[in-house]
Design goal:
alpha/beta; six-stranded mixed beta sheet; 5 helices; 8 strands
Amino acid sequence: MLMTEPTITCPKCKEEIKLTESLAAPLIKAKEHEYEERLQKERATIAAEEEKKAKLFLATDLAQTAKENTDLKKVLKHSNEKLAEAQKAQTDFLREQRKLKDKERELDLTIEKRVQKELADTREQAKKEAEEEHSLKAKEDKEIIASLQKEIGSLKRKAEQGSQQLQGEVQELEIEALLSTEFPFDTIQPVPKGVHGGDILHVVISPLGQECGTILWESKRTKHWSDGWLAKLRDDQRAAKADLAVIVSQTLPKGIETFDLIAGVWVTHPRVALPIATMLRHTLIEIATARQASEGQQTKMEEVYQYLTGPHFRQRVEAIVEGFSSMQEDLHKERRVINKQWDKREKQLNRAMKATVGMYGDFQGIAGKTLQEIEGLELHALDAPMDEHEEL
């Protein structure tokens, strides 16, 4: 490959001049040095321009940042001023609110004092009026209470008399029912009210249909025993021409627990009334049989009478009574349990009724005649009969 010689162009004549190797080397070196210097200058220029640009940019950025900081400081200052104003406004508001609350409490206290004063005046006036009205009402109540106490006392006496009479009638009916049930072939006749002659006339009939004798029964249900009953029943026995007389009483004379013969009259407790009736009836039947078998034999009659009034007969009757008493004791235990429950319920009802009547009376005393009457709470309700199981 052929090598061409290097040429240069003359800057004046614009002609190309061929360079030889010896001539071209210095020129090339000088040219390179020139290029190197120019490159360094350009680099310095570029570096200066870039540094200037960087300084200008940095100055601009710093100016912008300083401006932003200034603006932020202004905003912060403005915010602090607003916050201070808000805090001051809040403090003023709380102060005013506290003042308003204090004034409100003072106003409430003033109103309360006025209300209390007015209430005290009203109470005093009402008290005076109530005292005057109470004084008049007390006088009226005293007169009403005195009248009612008299009426209640009268009604109570009537109720007690009616209660005792009713309880005696209940026991009388029980004895009559007991005799009629146990001795269906005998004649059991209640003595009419107002007629002398005891309560029940018991005609004993033998198994052969023959009339063997008569027993006069008298029922008593009181708290205390009276010896006068014996004389009266003997008179009734003679009037009724009865062979035997019996008093059935809840309360017995001192020293008698169940039954005994006193002055010719048999006295017995209701729980052994049936054994006594059985014994006396059997005795009358035996006497009638003996009388019929030995008509005119006075001696045997005397023996029978002595037997009836002797200790042997009494021992036999006591043996019979003990057997009946044992059976009746069980029966009475069951009856007492049932009666206890009935009495408890009755007392509860009575307490409720008394409370209702008392409340109604209070309302009636306040309202007067304007309060309508309630059926069952009038005074005539006191005349209602007592329960047949209630005892004195």
